[in-house]
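Blinded run. Sample ID left blank on purpose so nobody reads anything into the name before looking at the predicted structure. Input follows.
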Amino acid sequence: RQLELERADAIEEGLEQGIKQGLEQGLEQGLEQGLEQGIELINQLNQILLSEGKYDELQKASNDKEYQKKLLAEYGLLNEKQGE
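Blinded prediction complete.
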């Protein structure tokens, strides 16, 4: 009986550790993907502004996050969930 309890405890502990490790890895991957997507969006916006010769807008967007979001939305680069 004692052996069964110890085994059940070990299984539960292993399961908890596995879940914790999986959550940590998932969070890390999600953050990495989000960062990559954010960089890609900003690069796309910068390319558009440069190609249109909108250097003042590019300068302002690089210093003003709200203005940057506005431009991302105007150019259709930002969906509703990303803007929240």
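Unblinding after everyone has recorded impressions. Helices lie at 2-51, 55-63, 65-74, 80-83.
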